[in-house]
Prior knowledge:
The structure holds two protein chains of two kinds. By secondary structure, chain A is of the alpha+beta class.
Amino acid sequence: MIRFIFGRRNYYPSSGEIMASMEDPYVLIDKWLRAKEFIVVGKGVARADALEKALGKAKYVEDYFQSGFLFIKQVLSTEPHAKIKGINVEEALRKPKVVKVITASDIPGENQVGYALPDQPLLAEGKVRFHGEVVALVVAEDIDAALEASEFVRINYEPLPHILDPLEALQRKDVLVHEEVGSNIAFRTRIRKGNVEEGFSKADVIVENEYRTHHQDHLYLEPEGALAIPGLDGRLTVITAAQYPHLAQSIIARVLGVPASDIKVIVPYMGGGFGGKDDEGPLTAAKAALAAYLTGQPSFILYTREESMRSHPKREATIIKYKSGASRDGKLTAIDVTIVHDTGAYANRGPFILWRATVHASGPYHIPHAKVDGYCVYTNKVYQGSFRGFGNPSVQFAAEAQMDELARKLGIDPVEFRLRNMLRPGLTTITNQLLDHSAGIADAVEQLAKVSGWYSKRREYGVSTGRFRRGIGIGVAWHGISTSRGVPDWSNAYIKIDKDGSVTAFTGIVEMGQGSPTSSHRQIVAEVLGAPIEKIKVTFGTSDAPDGGATHASRGTSIGAIGVLVAAAKIRERLNKLASELLNCSPDEVVIKEGKVYVRGDIERTITWEELIKHAYSRGVDLSATGYFFLPKGKFDDTVGQGQAYPAFSYVAMIAEVEVDTETGKVRVLKVWPALAAGRIINPQQVEGQIEGAAVQGMGYVLMEQLVFDDKGRLLNPDLTDYVVPTALDVPEIAKPVYVEDLFKYGPFGAKGVGEMALIPAPAAIANAVSHALGVRITKLPITPEAVYFEVKKHGLIK
Amino acid sequence: MFYRIPKFNYYRASTLDEALDLVSSLNDFKVLAGGTDLVIDLKVRRYTVKNVVDISRIKELDYIADDGDRVRIGALTKLQSIADSPIIREKVPVLADAVREMASWQIRNIATIGGNLCNASPAADTAPPLYVLNATLRLVSKEGEREVPIAEFFLGPRKTALRSKELLKEIVIPHEPGCGASFLKLGRRNSFTLSVVAVATLVKVVENKFADVRIALNSVAPTPVRARKAEEYLKGKEVSLDNITEAAKLVLHDISPISDVRASAEYRKDMSVVLTRDSLIKSLERIGIKV
């Protein structure tokens, strides 16, 4: 049978052999993967929320606030590392309209919110570990009263020595961010493939460099917020901006010490997430829930921009030592990589981020011998967390700089050198995972080189000695789909069809601007059911939908949409069977399209969609279904980092053309060309939007964004005056993407995932272009005008 | 963090006379023109004041007048009005160039030129062009009016020559036909950004010699500054790239930048030289001279 072609199968039908096989998710996913003609999939269908958003009618968390709700103001630490000797709340409580001041001791459940390691309190307890850590919540009848009282919460600190530099933290035992750990190393990773000594002995050229990358703030337009209403719908209902309603639900339940079933989480439209609200969203929700639970009144929290920047997790800052070797014929022989992530005060998702960086350290290349060591290191700074790319942009920056340097030493064109080593079906990754299918990157890079005019520009640029120098650079990257290693991942959703033929899909996937529920999910359901797309409503971001995982890791339209595909496909099988009885044909001959149900090749025998649904209701056909699918995972040995790291990889490449003003150091990105091998493109319009947004966010990260800390670890630019992100006038021309649709066997219609992709190669592409323009290797981000200028000066490139 | 604006008394004037009455009777006040700097400064508590005098609705100070030999701009003229004004574009285009690059469209429609000057930020972008245009500021109080050359108006960061009962009424810019002027700004992105360094220059050339040269910079000293040494060096000298390059280096004598989150002092020094040279070349191009 077809379903066994792709191997592992861990779903066992329990009853009714015929029905079970008809509704086996493996069979259904495979059946729709093989579809040849499409009604709406692959088309630029306008998203359901377009008009609402254009008109400013879409509602976000803050829009649900009503006067009379309590307001919560956070009190943040002013010390980077200190014992809390006492918290005096008396003075604050005496201020007018103050209802409550909440500290760690008021938490009824567990004050423990660490995602990867149990190292993090919701409210500081015993000590503070960074300047900006939340110590107390002031709850008052209105915002002014809360703000005023927050200044009168007296925290008695006993300062401890603090540590900011991750390399220093790695060595020292006398200053510990978490005493119970015994060192400042939160987590370690390693990969051992082959024998690197042997690999380097076969190398004709060796390149060794140290790279540094910096923090980035998500700077979503909508800062964090949550509104908790006790008793609504018989539960404590929390309206919040979180990327995973079920995770927010479980964190709230843990903090309050109540069953998850007592908590309902709704995520309305969200003004950007980028990973930041995957980490901070549930914590924001828990703070509002805590206040509502303790006061019995609706309670609202909204971070100011400064609070958001000071307290929510950032993109990891890294130090990467990278040694690679290649033979004269342009083949990589070995890599030896050490990755240090500055995780700040808490591990948060740092271990997962480090795993991702470790597993992807090679770039999308075949390397026979690899050794990678990763260290996730505590310091007394705001902690690191999820951010579009998740540990990957930094390591791809290092890997791709190495590729350029090796190519230069070998005298081979950088694209040609990459193509000689690129992963293709049949080759193994550095975790020794065999790529059996869905690895279309080589094709994408070849096409990209053509459309960008790579070969001629690469020869032409990089030789100028004038003031303005052009360069062209490439970054190629890969990004594992789903969770890493054996970490379970699944999808689910619930679909029902009402009597009038309208369809509702319930999913926990959220709408944070990317449009998964309002575009691709609708298209998938419409395609599979054959119902008119106007009849499809996707109710997103609710914990009342079955848990189908988070909207992160580029999974909203890939893994996240398998649930709606499978649920819709189950109902479609039932409808086909029903229609075959009504139309007197076999179920395979049933066509449902544009509101009509008919026999293939016989348009005469037709009923309408609505009639079909009426028949279903009168004949006892169940028009509701869930779409649970548990993603098969392989074995992975953490001790040597060998095994199946991910079910599949998305691939992305970017070519950037830049012009450097050597006298001011200013880099202008003139044009970027993106290419994507991410399986089926469900909605090209949405994918282009994701690529353009990610390319610009990546460019901002490389060229201008930076967090500046003082010697106490205090953030000096937690505001929009001095944390600089690109404006419309900084955006380069972005070419139409090259797509290679290398279908993934478990993706909905073969889709792999897009959201993070174009950001991942952006640092590499731009840095390589600048390096090409100047003939000087860039090893440190960001490439601000000042940084470039001093590189130019150091190397005497201008008089 | 500091989003609670401390309480203050709020007064609103609808005429200049009302405003002068208020500022002469009140102590410890700040004037609100557009508020785009003041409101943030109150929030972050750069200032704590008892009283705020809102003059934003005084219509009589919102004008751009062309008197032939001079242009007058009312202190409460919005930045966007200046950027859009045909008079400014024709008579003193360098000011329009500077204003167009300031802030965002939304802020330019609230912020005023008087506010930008009286706020006295070392990074005020209207200052360098007004310096090289030899603008004078007309200050008014109940006792009468006086004129102060712009270079004498700025005394230090957030400090001006305004006396406590005085208001800025208008900016007077002499129109000097035949001069070429330009403005160059280096920020951390292409728009909506504070200057790391900005430079305005103005040149007058007679028989291929610099008859007059004026150079002004911001963000490189406690106040916007004229680069007198560089100006003097060029006056009377032949127009040549070598002379311009030499002169540009001399701006270092008149500046004293600091390091902050936006840039290091060293970078600011080097960029002052580069931007001065580039701006001088551009000013010459404006009067049809290529070097």
